């Protein structure tokens, strides 16, 4: 314990208990509801893909068709699999016929429920077996090739053109990157469908599509063979299509997914009911696929002061941990987020940043914490920026973070060029190599500035969590307790896509995921 901060374990236990009660309260609320995105995800896991003549994705076409006929409250599975059994066709063929208007699912005579249930179980097992095969393939490749040492060096590509992203991703791997994240096109999180096919015209990033995932996965597998280590692929499944993109990532062997409802609520004004329901199913998929999720607490410090609001980051980490646990995600896949975002002109700011990072590392010892670089206080002075990134890298190595999202010295100027990325990787590798075992050698002064700061943040976080526990997460969000941003229960985008589950609601994939993960069944999730 000599090289650890002295934190009150009793307070940590109380904080987890409060966060668990908060998450349970939300789960009880969302458990009686589904969303159009969840139902579209079910179709994708059944193998439904493609678009209609107007380029509307077939999962949207079918879900909207079932919704318009008042049948979606029982789950899209019931209507679609009834047609599959009755007509002797595949879910894809059902979708294609619905799209051209030759099949109305409301007019198909009902089949015996036991037959539909058996077909649903068969489809769920087939769909999840595909995901399991990808997880096993990842494991084999890592065993054969090896991978980078933690903290993983995480860099972004954001050209808007998936084929250019593939080139830049390969370049980054040759330069030393361990994780390549394809930044999503601006605003995609707010569209209620997933674009189709390869795309070359994104804005500030590249559209997240299944074909784009396939192209990047192939490119990174190729470069992995060249550099002799497995290169992880990251994308974003936050937003209105969160569970759909999680499923697409699982089917194409992505390794990391940005996955955080609180981020969507606070920074994209997505309705809290909608995205928390979507998050629950998406995290079950990510958990089963072996995908590491990343959460977005770092963003809190872009709208609130990093010193004053540090406790809100820790409180959110506790809550996100509980949501993830309830979805069957092990700690080893919880990339809980935080950031190096204090004003560089602050005296002893480095000590305060160190306290925050070390505290998070001790409280979540098995989580591959995602540590974000300085961005808010980057000025365009590239020399100062490079030093800020070096200090950030120093703390990342010192406190044994799991994922180091590398800062770029031109952060305040433009989307990073290839040479900016190379310099960022060189910076991190230099620091990491020279400070590899520093954390094992340093002792924190009992009662010193660093330890006292961590204790104060923990105290404030505990107090906040126990207040949220009293009023509920929804009310806390309405009052602006996170990131100084207020959101309403019925406000934001996507509320119209939330539905009450009706008696007999059925999602065979949720049932199968819960069985495979050893999670308790919901009372609302039964058979048709």
Automatic annotation (TrEMBL):
Pfam families assigned: Lys-AminoMut_A
Q: Which GO terms describe its molecular function?
A: catalytic activity; cobalamin binding
Q: Which Gene3D superfamilies match?
A: D-Lysine 5,6-aminomutase alpha subunit
Q: Which residues form the D-Lysine 5,6-aminomutase alpha subunit domain?
A: 5-509
Give the InterPro entries listed for this entry.
Cbl-dep_enz_cat, Lys-AminoMut_A, Lys-AminoMut_asu_sf
Q: What is this protein called?
A: Beta-lysine 5,6-aminomutase alpha subunit /D-lysine 5,6-aminomutase alpha subunit
Q: Organism, per UniProt? A: Marininema mesophilum
């Amino acid at each position: 314990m000599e090289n650890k901060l002295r934190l009150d374990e009793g307070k940590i236990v109380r904080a987890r208990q409060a966060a668990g009660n908060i998450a349970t309260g939300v789960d009880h609320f969302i458990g009686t509801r589904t969303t159009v995105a969840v139902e579209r995800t079910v179709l994708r896991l059944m193998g439904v893909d493609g678009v209609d003549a107007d380029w509307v994705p077939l999962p949207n076409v079918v879900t909207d068709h079932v919704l318009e006929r008042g049948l979606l409250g029982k789950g899209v599975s019931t209507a679609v699999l009834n047609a599959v059994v009755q007509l002797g066709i595949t879910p894809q063929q059902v979708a294609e016929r619905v799209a051209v208007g030759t099949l109305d699912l409301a007019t198909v005579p009902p089949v015996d429920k036991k037959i539909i249930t058996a077909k649903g179980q068969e489809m769920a097992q087939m769909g999840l077996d595909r995901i399991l095969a990808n997880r096993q393939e990842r494991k084999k490749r890592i065993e054969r090739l090896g991978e980078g040492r933690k903290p993983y060096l995480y860099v972004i590509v954001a050209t808007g053109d998936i084929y250019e992203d593939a080139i830049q991703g390969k370049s980054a791997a040759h330069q030393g990157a361990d994780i390549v994240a394809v930044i999503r096109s601006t605003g995609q999180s707010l569209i209620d469908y997933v674009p189709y096919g390869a795309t070359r015209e994104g804005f500030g990033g590249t559209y997240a599509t299944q074909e784009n995932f396939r192209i990047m996965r192939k490119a990174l597998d190729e470069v992995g063979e060249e550099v002799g280590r497995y290169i992880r692929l990251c994308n974003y499944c936050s937003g209105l299509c969160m569970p759909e993109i999680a499923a697409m990532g699982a089917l194409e062997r992505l390794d990391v997914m940005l996955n955080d409802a609180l981020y969507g609520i606070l920074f994209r004004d997505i309705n809290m009911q909608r995205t928390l329901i979507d998050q629950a199913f998406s995290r079950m998929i990510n958990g089963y696929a072996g995908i590491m999720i990343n959460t977005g607490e770092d963003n809190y410090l872009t709208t609130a002061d990093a010193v004053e609001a540090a406790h809100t980051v820790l409180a959110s980490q506790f809550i996100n941990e509980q949501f993830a646990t309830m979805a069957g995600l092990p700690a080893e896949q919880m990339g809980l987020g935080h950031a190096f975002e204090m004003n560089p002109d602050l005296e002893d700011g480095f000590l305060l940043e160190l306290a925050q990072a070390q505290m998070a590392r001790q409280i979540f010892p098995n989580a591959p914490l995602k540590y974000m670089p300085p961005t808010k206080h980057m000025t365009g002075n590239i020399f100062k920026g490079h030093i800020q990134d070096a200090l950030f890298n120093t703390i990342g190595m010192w406190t044994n973070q799991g994922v180091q999202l590398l800062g770029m010295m031109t952060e305040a100027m433009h989307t990073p060029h290839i040479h900016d990325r190379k310099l960022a990787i060189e910076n991190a590798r230099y620091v990491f190599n020279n400070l590899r075992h520093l954390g094992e050698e340093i002792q924190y002064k009992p009662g010193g500035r660093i330890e006292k700061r961590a204790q104060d943040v923990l105290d404030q976080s505990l107090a906040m969590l126990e207040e949220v526990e009293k009023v509920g997460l929804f009310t806390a969000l309405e009052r602006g307790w996170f990131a100084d941003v207020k959101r309403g229960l019925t406000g934001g985008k996507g509320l119209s896509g939330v539905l009450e589950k009706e008696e007999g609601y059925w999602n065979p994939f949720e049932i199968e995921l819960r069985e495979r993960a050893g999670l308790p069944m919901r009372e609302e999730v039964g058979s048709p």
